[in-house]
Amino acid sequence: MIKQSDLYKGLLKTKLNKPGITRNFIDRHRLVRLLNTGIRRPLTIVIAPAGFGKTTLVSSWVESLTEGVTPPVPAAWLSLDENDSDLVVFLRYLVAAIETLFPDSCPETLALLQASQPVPVLSFVVALSNDIEQLPARFVLVLDDYYAIRNTEVHDFLSEMLRHWPQHLHMVLISRSNPPLPLGKLRGTDQLTEIRTRDLRFSPDESAAFLSNALPSPLSPATLSFIDERIEGWIAGLRLATLSLGSGSDAESELLNLSGSHLEIADYLMDEVLANQPPAILRFLLVTSILDRFCAPLCESILAGDSELQPGEAAGYIQYLEQSNLFVIPLDNSRQWHRYHHLFQDLLQRRLTAEASPEQVAGLHRRAAAWFAEQGFVEEALRHALAINDLNLATQLVATGLCNALNADDRTTLERWLRLFPDAYIQRQPWLLILQAIVLQLSWQLPAVWKLLDQIEALLERTDESEPSLVGVPQDLPVLRGIVASMRAIQAFSSGQADRAVAAGEEALALLPKEWRTVRGVASSYWGFGMRALGQGDAARRTLVDDYESLSEKSDAYALRLLFSAAFISIELGDLEQGRLLAETLLEHAISGRMPVSMGHGHYLLGVLHYYRNELDAAEKHFDELVGKRLIVHTQNARNGMIGLARVYAARAEISAAWPIMDILSRLDVDRLGQDGADARSLRAQLVLRQGDAEAAFLWADGFNAPITGQSLLWLQSPHLAKAWILLERGADADIRSALDILDTLQSLAERSFNVCSQVETQALRAMALEKQEKSVEALAALQRAVELAQPGGFIRVFVDLGPPMQTMLQSLANKGIAVGFISHILAGFPKHSPETSNGSEPDIFWSRIRLTNSMLIEPLTNRELEVLSLLRKRLSNKEIALELSLSPTTVKRYTNEIYGKLGVNRRWDAVLKAEELGFFSQS
């Protein structure tokens, strides 16, 4: 008895295991030697029409690599079909094939495969090449049936891969036609081994040997010559010819009747082969020809109720096909899974279409879809539903697989499923509209989501719960309503309705079954955010943490969302230390669980925490991770990682380094929404103002009139705060009044929602506005309140970002004996006018000379760049400099490149010599 769990595991393996070697194969040592020689090159192609023994040749060669060679060369096998033409699907199977040899390999590629937005082909190429270079041994990867790939993206990927080929990989492509790859260039550079039809076709002697072995009596030389002329060494044709002969027939005369092309011969021989089979076998062949891969339980399922076949006999039928060598190929070592030779399957399907009605064929596909769905293979089930254009069945299958896809952070699968259906059909189906809303929510296109929710709710209200409908079955309705409620919680919180957010979150949690981990996690998050906004943040955080602690699985979608929510609330409550502990735990478990969206949450929260604490190097590290992983994390985390990194550069007075990051952000926004986001435009205005372009900054501020609505989330860049800051920089009386109006509204909102983090930011900026109105008493009162709120959590950067005016006000507050210790920490974060030298020599004289020399450069060096320059002079490596300054080597490299550009040199020692020449260092 075959266990169902074994079948479940085996189906994936059928794509990843080489087919079993069929009998009657004549081993041709010359071709094996050619394959052995070619292994030193990146690529081998085996190209010939169907039936020339391509797969059998490579399969036997692979067997010899793993069994008869010291040390053995491991080989992975991937059988392709047209459904693998999607680049992401193709790469998932490719990585799975590699993992059969090297478990837990290719982490960088796997992360990109869970990207939250389209990934450029080159990014996949670089990631996979890097992953393969990290593997411990050289290996062979066979891609069988490559001709089935129709998507140019896959071809582009392999073409680009050949330009960045990893040394550990030798690839073999088996195809019926030339792959669209740069074969001419590969030939010219000796990177290609080719085996083609002329190499594979049987010679006259091989054909004679084959026929001699297959027939009871030898054929005459004239007949052998005629067969060779007609069949031209076509191995499958020879096999078909021998199978077509009836018992007791005159082989000579029947074989002399062969005529026409290969296809015509195949049609003729097929009729003859099938005519010699028992009726039950013929019926089994036709019915199972719809299956790309099959096993006994699957065959039993689609044969259920067939009056011409006995139930429970599928395993016996398969055994008969194997024993008769009737073009069936085993796909795994346990011989549970098989497939038909492609040519044989094509001809069987044509025969089935001619003999069966469309309704009968559709019934076979529906039973196949039902079996695959029951085993949990939604993709295979969808393939059969769409083969007969049964969109209702396909919709039910998507509904069945949606939960697991969401729990796995598998956004690419969700987007691919959505593309399978016509838009007009989607508009009538609540499950597909839910899928569309989820995809839009993941890219943070919230207004479009709210419209879809209205449409979904209208459809659900028209559904009679007592009857099945296009929605699915009656028990689907609570799940659909639960998903809608979880999204309504987001909408309610975003529009400032905390009580409705709490209620919607509770409704979602009551409706959704436990297995809907991700959606329940979202509902818990916005329940918690709503509770915080109602003044019950501590209680919400305790509930979320207690729920997390009670879970046995700490790394799944629900557990990680609980940690994220608790950390998020902690920061908004001003408890940065508790937020740090929770965020670090979140990141650790997200990495171990390979959950890219949650990894993004962890990096963003930690980046924000370190930024608020003025720990810029640590903040840069986490924001840089988000920028590097922008294609696989949540869109808002990616965007805000870019904003955070740009703000880190601005905090260091390295505005030029911020612009490339802003350009990446702009491209992301334009691709997603058609224009830059308001937060990105506001940050650009602040950056250009710091560079002296006041006119452009003021133009943006005067044109930004969006209303202040809803609850503020934990984003580093608030367009309204940015406008207030820019207006204060311009400083006219009307500007100051406008800035105060904005800040008073934001302050009221922050107080009503118990958001300590927002209160610190708005009170600090309000203090500066009041000071500009010469209301010193009120200004210091506002600043005192900001400092008192900031002190428990250790907020520093909020004040430092406001520059020298805030520095002066803080000193005045400290002079009054208020929070002297904490204010001293804040004041230490402001830029020093005379930094200490790295060599300890005469600080004031040294830095006065540095400032004078530096001012003569077109673009002066920053203080950090001067520190790096002084360490370059000591001949320290980048790693040593990084250790000295508590930076990453990558950051040090960026600093050195900036120094080279500003000094007009290309090498580090040239930079030191140029600096000495300009007078940056004493000549002693």
SSE-based structural type: mainly alpha
Question: Major β-sheet, in short?
Answer: 5 strands, parallel
**CATH architecture descriptor text of one domain:** 3-Layer(aba) Sandwich
CATH homologous superfamily label of one domain: P-loop containing nucleotide triphosphate hydrolases
The helical percent reads 55-70%
Beta-strand residue fraction: under 5%
Number of beta-strand segments: 7
CATH class of one domain, please? Alpha Beta
Q: CATH fold name of one domain, please?
A: Rossmann fold
Number of helices: 49
How far apart the termini lie comes to 87 Å
Order of neighbouring strands in the sheet with most strands = 2-3-4-1-5
Mean pLDDT: 85
Q: Give the CA-based shape.
A: elongated
Produce a short descriptive summary.
With 924 residues, this protein is mainly alpha-helical.
Detailed description of the structure:
By secondary structure, this protein is mostly helical. Among the domains are: 27-200, Rossmann fold, CATH 3.40.50; 204-275; 279-388, Arc Repressor Mutant, subunit A (Orthogonal Bundle); 703-822; 843-918, Winged helix-like DNA-binding domain superfamily/Winged helix DNA-binding domain (Arc Repressor Mutant, subunit A). It has 49 helices and seven strands. The protein is elongated and about 115 Å long. The N and C termini lie far apart (87 Å). The relative contact order is 0.05.
